[in-house]
Amino acid sequence: MMGFLTNLLNPKIALLYLSLLPQFLDLSGGHLLAQSVLLASVQIMISFAVNSLIVLASASVAAWFTRLTVTEKQPAAGGN
């Protein structure tokens, strides 16, 4: 919950949206707010997908490390 609030109150993301998204809006393409919401939604969905893949990959690596015995972990961690 604390991480969510920290990200929610982070002004850098709001500034990023305000500075980058307007260049992708088409003034003759219709309602600007709808275009902005659509672009932000696409960015959020892509970020969610990438972060989900990172979590799944990390979980599989963690499961692999838990299956190793102590003698197998030493060379894997040391690079030998």
Question: What labels would you give this structure?
Answer:
elongated, 80 residues, 4 helices, single chain, mainly alpha
Per-chain topology:
Elements: H1 2-8, H2 11-20, H3 32-67, H4 70-78
Quick overview of this protein structure:
The chain is mostly helical and 80 residues long.
Can you walk through the features of this model?
It is a single chain. By secondary structure, the chain is an all-alpha fold. It is built from 4 helices and no strands. The longest helix is centred in the middle third of the chain and has 36 residues, at 32-67. The protein is elongated, with a radius of gyration of 21 Å. 0% of the residues are buried. The model has no long low-confidence stretch (mean pLDDT 83).
Contiguous runs where pLDDT drops below 50 for at least 5 residues: none
What share of the residues lie within helices? over 70%
Largest sheet: none
The separation of the N and C termini measures: 40 Å
Element string (H = helix, E = strand): HHHH
Class per helix and strand makeup: mainly alpha
Total beta strands: 0
The quaternary structure here is single chain
Beta strand %: under 5%
User: What general outline do the C-alpha atoms trace?
Assistant: elongated
Mean pLDDT: 83
Report Rg: 21 Å
Q: DSSP helix count?
A: 4
